[in-house]
Amino acid sequence: MSERIAIVGGGKIGEALLAGLIQSGKQTKDLVVAEKMPKRAKEIADEYGVLVTDVTTAAEGAQYVFLAIKPDDVDSVLRELSSADDDAESERVTVSLVAGLPLSRYENGLQAGSPVVRVMPNTPMLVNEAMSAVSVGRYVGDDQLAAVVRLLETVGKVAVVPEKQMDAVTAVSGSGPAYVFLMAEAMIDAGVALGLSRVQASELTVQTIRGAGLLLSESGLSPVDLRAAVTSPGGTTAAAIRQFEANGFRHGVYEATRACAAVSKKAGYRPDVEGLGGPSSGRTDVDAP
Ligand SMILES: NC(=O)C1=CN([C@@H]2O[C@H](COP(=O)(O)OP(=O)(O)OC[C@H]3O[C@@H](n4cnc5c(N)ncnc54)[C@H](OP(=O)(O)O)[C@@H]3O)[C@@H](O)[C@H]2O)C=CC1
Ligand SMILES: O=C(O)[C@@H]1CCC=N1
Q: Which residues line ligand 1 (CB under 6 A)?
């Protein structure tokens, strides 16, 4: 029997999941999206040929409901899901892609005993090269976990991690693609400053990042060894790396990931709305940044 998969939220990561699942062979008849913005709903329906509807309809008959919505929208969606179809709820696996919110938030918001899996994916899912980290809720059976892992493996790699590592995971792989794209932007701008056309600088940068990523992934060598192999004694790379270090590159990456993890840790608090320590999260393990 085919599995019906609902994706609530047709934004960036919801679309990446949808596109990845379709590319990996999932049939569009087994996929349904809930998206509340009418313009976006039409774009998704036109582009992918899937049903785009409301949360309740999407969840009906779905074995898996992926939540690809912002943290602020979670409570209202959980209310809709728990009033949708009481009998089905304990069978249905809710898979949250939302940064920062703990498993307990979903387990408390859904019918008692509902299986919930928390995932931190990333946008390379669009090209079936995601890195997804998975933490398992207390009511998830082994078969249910295996099924979610199998689904995510169709769009990339999967690691199962304890929930306490999720903030760090978000800082490395969840937000990580943005750091690489920022590096690409900076390299392209630097190439233009050195006299290359933007088209040339883009082609050189994109292929360099692609090739370096593949080499790192496939050679079995460490980043330290691979960097050393590029760095000829007294040569051009050594001059560049000296400037990176003098300008705090390593420190910048460290501070950036720390800031990212701190925001992930506080996501449940919605600090802009309620102030730190506000009543929305139910979390008690949040430190000052
Ligand atoms: N982008 C990324 O790389 C990653 C994102 N995530 C997580 O994924 C989640 C979504 O992020 P992202 O895709 O970037 O955000 P987007 O804002 O692009 O997408 C969220 C979408 O969900 C829609 N939505 C909100 N509430 C509902 C509802 N009740 N029913 C149907 N649709 C709804 C929003 O509509 P509207 O705009 O009208 O509110 C919006 O189109 C976040 O929690 C984030 O932490 C995790 C890993 C990576
Ligand atoms: O920026 C964000 O909050 C989301 C979570 C990880 C990547 N994007």
A: 8-14, 34-37, 40, 55, 68-71, 73, 76-77, 97-99, 120-123, 174
Kindly state the average pLDDT of the residues 57-81. Answer: 95
Helix, strand, or coil (residue 120): strand
Note the CATH architecture for domain 5-162: 3-Layer(aba) Sandwich (3.40)
Q: Domain segments of the chain: what residues?
A: 5-162, 176-247
264 Cα–ligand 2 center, Å: 8
The architecture that CATH gives domain 176-247 is Orthogonal Bundle (1.10)
Q: What is the pLDDT of residues 251-284, one digit of tens each?
A: 999 999 999 999 999 875 444 433 333 333 333 3
**Could you tell me where the beta strands, DSSP code E, fall in 68-143?**
93-96, 116-120, 130-136
